[in-house]
Amino acid sequence: MSAASVAPLPVYVIDALNMGKRSRIAAIALLGYDHFVTLDREVTYIWSARKNNVAFYLYVFNRFFALTYLIFDSVPLTKSGVVSSQVYALYERSRKILIFMLSMCALEIAAMGSLMGVTIGHLEHLPVVSTPTGCFYRGLLNLSALFWVPGLLYEPVLCILVLHKAMSRKHHIPLVVVVARDSLLYFVAIFAILLCSTIIWARDPTYINMVMPWSAALPSILGSRLLLNMREKVHWTSNEKSYIVETIGHSQAQHRDSLTFIEAHLDLQLELELVSNNLHSCTGQC
């Protein structure tokens, strides 16, 4: 339904949509800057490594999909599943941890899918009201604010698992510290975005477009830096028998030194995480 076929939008709605566009431009600028300042590390640790593996394509997808999405605004966001694979690696490929994460992910997907179905079923206009500066929804239920709650519950669980492993005395090794540090930054940023989205959606969905661009930019930046930092750390470490390296990488001869590059061995957990995070951003986008 076009904007001409419905009542004119209030001024505050137009202002909110304009702020959303400015927020999108800022997110694109930050992504572009991060691409520029990490280009040398990408060449060394990503583009110079073998490309016939899942880890390489996961990095490329995580790195460039968000930028493409923000520029063209035509497809839903899918965040990286890198962090979940690191949790699995930190726990030495524990079957119990894998089953636990799969179960949590399945519950998260089921809850978000149900809430999305209820929300879409109660929209007054389909398609939503479209304007030159963004989209506006009518008939949203307050219940739809719960859409982000499963993520708010699941992300802290992963964070606790990482911190528990990192704080264990027998795991005070440099690579684990790097994983824990970067994962914590990732979790804090994602949790903040999910919390802001929940509060804004519950209080006034008009302003949701102000935070949605950052739900694409921050996971892309932090997820890429997580993998870059791990590759760089393994590049210089001599602990090639670490169970983390064994789980997510293998050794490769390069120049005169034996260097280890992380090649993520992703499984069904990764696929479920990608689908789960895809659902997070479907609501609030045209």
TrEMBL record:
The transmembrane segments are: 56-76, 97-120, 140-163, 184-201, 207-228
Domain (DUF6533) ranges:
25-67
Pfam families documented for this protein: DUF6533
InterPro entries reported in the protein's UniProt record: DUF6533
Question: Does the record bear Transmembrane helix in its keywords?
Answer: yes
Record key words, sorted? Membrane, Transmembrane, Transmembrane helix
Query: Record keywords: Transmembrane included?
Result: yes
Domain of life (superkingdom): Eukaryota
Query: What is the protein's name according to its record?
Result: DUF6533 domain-containing protein
Q: Which species is this UniProt entry from?
A: Cristinia sonorae
